[in-house]
Amino acid sequence: MNIHEYQAKELLKAHGVPVLDGGVAYTPDEAVRVAERLETPVFVVKSQIHAGGRGKGHFKEPEAGDKGGVRVVKSLDEVRENTEHMLGRTLVTHQTGPEGREVKRVYVESGCNIARELYLSMLIDRATSRVTIMASTEGGMDIEEVAARTPEKIVFESLDPVVGLSPYSARKIAFALKLEGGQVSACVKLLMSLYKAFMATDASMVEINPLVVTADGDLLPLDAKMNFDSNALYRQPKIESLRDEDEEDPAELEAQRHSLNYIKLDGTIGCMVNGAGLAMATMDIIKLYGGEPANFLDVGGGATRERVTTAFKIILSDPSVEGILVNIFGGIMRCDVIAEGVVAAAREVSLNVPLVVRLEGTNVDLGKKIMAESGLPIISADNLADAAEKVVKAVKEAQ
């Protein structure tokens, strides 16, 4: 689960991480009120969407004076003007894709005099199953670009889960960032607070880019991005309350409400499978036969007819879907339940794309009978390879 920058900064501040003063605003008047209380000659107005690259982004419908989604201004009038210019418009960045995201709120923050820009993040390294710190002297840039051009400028510190973050490891990062004097102790303190926040909130990543050294020598997070382990949200109600559903895919949200594991992809063949491993294998074999999966969808081992029907509707809600492959191995999940759900959904939504179904396992004969007697144009498959070949062929013939 992702949250907005202003929410991340509030969380970090609550755990002792120093951040600049600022506030969220949903209207130009609110933005001016926030700016008035900051008492600073320079303000930064930031579009709040769940995507990076806002400063380099552009608005979907260009207007005179467009300057991206992050702007430095020097008066209350400019705060109002730029807030009016951002709110309600669609911001496109390299992370949003061409469809962009609508800006529904801005974050107004005090400006600062920047001397250096650094990069700092904490994340779960799946290779080691440890919290790992990434740091670089090349802040303000995409870390992927730094990794591609100058990988030697990125340092990693893997943390022992028993020890956690020690002052020794924190100092190593400070020295790698070429900090000096009091900046080293400030960096150690910031890192310790950052680690505390990371662990306390069940975060999966905290990224500060840039972490700046000001002209006065202070160390401050100029931007902050956090995301969290969705599997831990049951014990993090305060974090879950920060969720902005407007920033999430409607189909994925609907799937979550029905305990379905759904992720939209870029292909044209919708998949409904029971079991994550089988779902991955299904997507792989679709690609092997020349197709592209439109989604990952795991209905789980104990899905009801209603949940299967919902899953089918979610797949068909994607306009890019040109064919559907249902691949079920019935263990706990009975094949007749799947068949009933598929038939019910196909009738309800007036199915108009090829549908290939492969069933094996508990009550498979009954499931096949239900589909055969449905009167619907369901293509039956004998095995996974047969199913993938048939759905790819059917989609190509229908084009």
UniProtKB/TrEMBL annotation:
**PROSITE patterns named in the record:** ATP_GRASP, SUCCINYL_COA_LIG_3
Q: Which reaction does it catalyse?
A: GTP + succinate + CoA = succinyl-CoA + GDP + phosphate; (S)-malate + ATP + CoA = (S)-malyl-CoA + ADP + phosphate; succinate + ATP + CoA = succinyl-CoA + ADP + phosphate
Stretches assigned to the ATP-grasp domain: 9-239
**Which is a GO BP term held by this UniProt record?**
succinyl-CoA metabolic process
Q: Which family does it belong to?
A: Belongs to the succinate/malate CoA ligase beta subunit family.
SUPFAM superfamilies annotated for this entry? Glutathione synthetase ATP-binding domain-like, Succinyl-CoA synthetase domains
Q: In which pathway does it act?
A: Carbohydrate metabolism; tricarboxylic acid cycle; succinate from succinyl-CoA (ligase route): step 1/1; One-carbon metabolism; formaldehyde assimilation via serine pathway
Please give the subunit comment from the record: Heterotetramer of two alpha and two beta subunits.
| Family annotation (Gene3D superfamilies) | ATP-grasp fold, A domain (3.30.1490.20), ATP-grasp fold, B domain (3.30.470.20), Succinyl-CoA synthetase domains (3.40.50.261)
What biological function has been recorded for the protein in this entry?
Answer: Succinyl-CoA synthetase functions in the citric acid cycle (TCA), coupling the hydrolysis of succinyl-CoA to the synthesis of either ATP or GTP and thus represents the only step of substrate-level phosphorylation in the TCA. The beta subunit provides nucleotide specificity of the enzyme and binds the substrate succinate, while the binding sites for coenzyme A and phosphate are found in the alpha subunit.
Tell me what this protein is called. Answer: Succinate--CoA ligase [ADP-forming] subunit beta
Q: Which residues cross the membrane?
A: none
Amino acids binding substrate: N274, G331, I332, M333
